[in-house]
Amino acid sequence: MKLMVSLYGVALSIICSVAFAKVISESSRPVEKAVCVLYNPFNSITGLIHFQKTEEGILITGKIIGLEPGLHAFHIHEKGDIRDPKCSLVGAHFNPYSKKHGAPTDTTRHVGDLGNIYADDNGVALISMTNKLVGLEGPTCVIGRSLVVHRARDDMGRGREFVSKLTGNAGERITCGVIGYA
């Protein structure tokens, strides 16, 4: 088991290094699409998420399977380091403008606050949302960062606990992936 986790970490380190090299080498070209593969070797949660530039903002679509039924927080985190299957190295929510945590409809919030996704009784979440703060270029660029699904729902910063204002009181990170060029 330890060998599998070690090999998983090495493989992800190589993938992350290649992704960052690609980000640096292609940063002068306009970016229209990005993609993220979600995977955790210790549970059955997998997913594929697409990011597409549109006139209305970034269209985020995809499918995640293996979730517990119900709402799950869905965030972009600041670092693309997914070597730990518990997603502990991805940092905080992507927040380049030092805003408070909030709902995706709030104009002043973390760029990475995408709200909640809903998993049906079969554990499947179908995602389709447009986000005006997320970018594929410039200071709000999410390429090279991570996408994270949490065990609990996001309270949108409206809870009474202190952690609500930081993370939406979303609980454990259950799967993650690096956002890269499509």
Automatic annotation (TrEMBL):
It is an enzyme of class 1 (oxidoreductase). Keywords: Antioxidant, Copper, Disulfide bond, Metal-binding, Oxidoreductase, Signal, Zinc. The keyword Transcription does not apply. Its cofactor is Zn(2+); Cu cation. Residues 1-21 form the signal peptide. Belongs to the Cu-Zn superoxide dismutase family. This is superoxide dismutase. The keyword Zinc applies. It catalyses: 2 superoxide + 2 H(+) = H2O2 + O2. InterPro entries: SOD-like_Cu/Zn_dom_sf, SOD_Cu/Zn_/chaperone, SOD_Cu_Zn_dom. Residues 46-179 form the Superoxide dismutase copper/zinc binding domain. It comes from Cryptolaemus montrouzieri. Its EC number is 1.15.1.1. GO terms for molecular function: metal ion binding; superoxide dismutase activity.
